[in-house]
Amino acid sequence: MNQSRTKLWTKDFIIVSTINFLVTIIFYLLIVIIGMYAVDQFHASTSQAGLVTGIFIIGSLIGRMLIGRFIESIGRKRTLFIGSVFFILTTLLYLIHVNISFLLITRLLHGIAAGMVGTATGTIAAQIIPATRKAEGIGYFSMSATLAAAIGPFIGLYMTQHTNFQMIFIFSLALGVISLITTFLVNVPALEVTVKPDELKGFKLSNFIEPKALPIAFVTLVVAFCYSSVLSYINFYAKEINLISAASFFFLVYSVAVLLSRPFTGRIMDLKGANSIMYPAFIIFAAGMVLLSSANTSITLLLAGALIGLGFGNMQSSTQAIAVKLTPPHRMGLATSTFFIFLDAGLGFGPYLLGFIIPVTGYSKLYVILGVVALASSILYYLLHGKKEHAAKAKVNISNAV
How far apart are CA 23 and CA 13, in angstroms? Predict the structure, then answer.
């Protein structure tokens, strides 16, 4: 086999991962400070601050759904460029101080732009990764977001202590400009398979959602819903149990666990299939949630972060790889947007829905309940995908034996 066709760390792969890293850093940087900004500058209520935080995810859903439909007709690199320009323009809106309504519109538009860029980078990355290293490559690509998830909140919270909100928005704008400049360096190969003329005509659900990616995307929705409780409420929980200092390192430990495991999990998945990664990940994720529910020391809190990283972090990249592998090359953009639509829906709507449950259960019991849900979702995975992969693998083994 030609080595150039199996090479993973190409210039284009590194550049696309860098763009994804920069855009995701901006997302996480702003998501931890924007609620405080809304309260501080516009005297927003708690529910308004939550809406300002979460409406970005709704925008991202809209952006992904629209661009997944048109990315092939527009062109993947052109979509990335247009999305990056729109992302910068909407970042500029944060510098305009009007009222809470204007901030909500800004967050919605910024989310749409981020959805466009995220779908483009994910689609391009999936295209340029060699078929024999698809899971490994997507795992490495998604590490750009994992790193951003650790660095972004740290930068955001650090800047709130040492500068003002205006400087935070200017810093975000600068990162966006760097990301835009970087898009000019990406070379996206032409697709060998082109879109059929009548395939995307008309207003059909299959023009916005990839049906083959739906089963695994639904599994992603459930586990992302569980993880959203950690992403949104870990600081509140840590304050309640007097571990706020340790909580500042929670996502750093999460990211380190993902970074250390990702090189192995991707290769194992490519060699042995998704089931070999997914089933252990469900157990580890559930164990992390239960441990988090009983955390009373810094060590147990951070250990829970490591387990959740090993579990959910690897499930996230594995399910994305499954969605891409199940889909024809010319519908890879739709598959990518479908995956992220369901991921974002779980992460975005989860905190809002869980907000009604927390007053009844408290944080500790909530994490136990969601740990059980995470474990039970392994059954859902088996029914929607796992048993098909097991049957396909058994068939291959029989053929090889014969």
Answer: 16
Within this chain, do residues 117 and 224 fall inside the same structural domain, yes or no?
no
Picking from 393, 148, 127, the residue whose alpha carbon sits closest to that of residue 269 is 393
Residue 192 inside a domain? The answer is: no
Helix (H) or strand (E) holding 50: helix 46-74
Domain that holds residue 262: 202-402
Q: How far is CA 216 from the centre of its chain?
A: 15
The Cα 66–Cα 54 span in angstroms is: 19
- Domain match, 224 and 150 both: no
Do 21 and 118 share a structural domain?
A: yes
Q: Burial level of 179, CB count in 10 A (0-12/13-18/19+)?
A: buried
User: By the 8 A CB rule, do 257 and 311 touch?
Assistant: no
Judged by phi (left if over 0) then psi (alpha if -120 to 50, else beta), residue 129 lies in beta
**Residue-level pLDDT, tens digit, the chain, 402 residues:** 444 447 888 899 999 999 999 999 999 889 878 888 888 899 888 677 778 887 888 898 889 888 887 887 888 899 999 999 999 999 999 999 999 999 999 999 999 999 999 989 988 988 888 888 887 888 788 888 878 877 887 788 788 878 899 999 999 999 999 999 999 998 887 765 445 545 555 556 666 788 899 999 999 999 999 998 887 788 788 889 999 888 878 888 988 898 888 878 888 888 888 899 999 999 999 999 999 999 999 999 999 999 999 999 889 888 988 988 888 877 777 887 888 889 888 887 887 788 888 889 999 999 999 999 999 999 999 999 998 887 776 665 565 555
Cα–Cα distance between 183 and 172 in angstroms, integer? 17
Total domains in the chain come to 2
pTM of the model: 0.79
How many angstroms separate the CA atoms of 34 and 111, rounded?
Answer: 13
Same domain, 223 and 372: yes
* Length of the chain counted residue by residue: 402
Contacting residues for 124 by C-beta, under 8 A, at least 6 apart: 12, 16, 76, 77, 80, 186, 188
Strand ranges, E, within 16-147? none
